[in-house]
Amino acid sequence: MRINRALRFGIGAIALALATATVTGCGGGDDKSALEHAEDGQLTIGIKFDQPGLGLRNKDGSYSGFDIEVAEYIAGKLGVEPENITWKEAPSGQRETLIENGQVDYIVATYSITDKRKERVDFAGPYYVAGQSLLVRADNTDINGPDDLKGKKVCSVKGSTPAQNIEKNFPDTQLQTNDTYSLCLEGLRAGSWDAMTTDDIILAGYASQSPGAFKVVGEPFTTENYGIGVKKGDQELRDKVNDALEEMIADGSWNKAFESTVGLSGYQSPQPPTVDRY
Ligand code: GLU
C-alpha cells in the first residue's frame, strides 16, 4: 500500500517534471518575447561553441570570442548581466529554427544576413563583414582558389552560405557537409578531404590554433554580412540591438572586443561596418 502510494507519487512527480520541461523548453522557450526575458533579467543567446576567436566554449566551461563580446554588449544595453546569460549552441543549419521556436532570444553566430533567411527571421547589423575562403593542409600546393576545386573533396557545414555557394556555383566539387566546422577540420587534418570552406575569419581561427598544420588560401570570394538574428517581426528588439551595435562601434568597445579576441592571433582589425536599418 505504502509502496503503491510512493510509486504513484513518483510517477506523478516525473509526469509533472516532464510537463514543466515541455512548457519552459530548454532555454527560455516560453511565450515571452526576448525583451520580456530581458526585463526579467535573463537572456538565452545562440552562439557557436567550436569557432576559436569568434564563438568558443572553453575546456573550463567558459565562453570566449568576438561573437560573445558582441552578444554581451547587447545584453548589457538590454539590462542583462553576463552571468544571467544562458549560452546555447546554434549550429549553422539550426539557427532559423532556434529563433522561430523561441529557444533563443537572439543569435550571434557568424550568421550571414541573406534574403532567404530573412523569409524566416530578421537581422540587426551587420556588425562584421567576412568573405568565403578556403583552408587546406599546409603542404598543399594545388588549391589556391575556388577555381581549383574541380574534382576535389571539400567539406563545409549544412545550412551554411559557403556550402550553398559551392553547390550552386562550383558544381564539379565533391562537397561533403557536416554539422559543424570542427568536424570538417578534423577530417581535413586526417586527409579525408582536400579543403574546407567557410568565412575567412573562421578559417583563420582554426589555422592559428594549429600552427604549421593549415593555411588559408586565395582571396575571399563572397561577401558575408554578419547579423544578429532575431524573431521575425520583432521590430522593437531589432531597433534596440541596432542601437546597441551603433553604440558599441561609437564608444570603441567594438574595436576593443575585436582586438581581445580575433585580433590576438594577429588578424588585422578592420573598419567596423555601418548598421543597416532595412
Ligand atoms: N557566415 C556563413 C553563414 O552564415 C558561414 C558561417 C557559419 O556557417 O556560421 O552560413
Protein described:
The chain has helices at 2-24, 34-39, 66-77, 95-100, 115-118, 161-169, 181-190, 200-209, 235-250, 253-259, and strands spanning 43-47, 50-51, 55-57, 63-64, 85-89, 106-107, 121-130, 132-137, 153-157, 174-178, 195-199, 214-217, 224-231. The chain folds into two domains: 34-129 and 226-265, Periplasmic binding protein-like II (D-Maltodextrin-Binding Protein, domain 2), CATH 3.40.190; 132-217, Periplasmic binding protein-like II (D-Maltodextrin-Binding Protein, domain 2, 3-Layer(aba) Sandwich), CATH 3.40.190.10. The chain has 278 residues and is of the alpha/beta class. The strands form four sheets. A five-stranded mixed sheet has the order 10-9-11-8-12, sandwiched between helices. It has a three-stranded parallel sheet with strand order 5-1-6. The protein has a three-stranded antiparallel sheet with strand order 2-3-4. Helix 3 (66-77) crosses helix 9 (235-250) and helix 3 (66-77) packs antiparallel against helix 10. The structure holds glutamic acid. Glutamic acid (GLU) binds at residues 92, 109-112, 157, 160-162, 198-199, 224.
Briefly say what this structure is.
The protein is an alpha/beta fold and 278 residues long. The protein has helices spanning 2-24, 34-39, 66-77, 95-100, 115-118, 161-169, 181-190, 200-209, 235-250, 253-259; strands at residues 43-47, 50-51, 55-57, 63-64, 85-89, 106-107, 121-130, 132-137, 153-157, 174-178, 195-199, 214-217, 224-231.
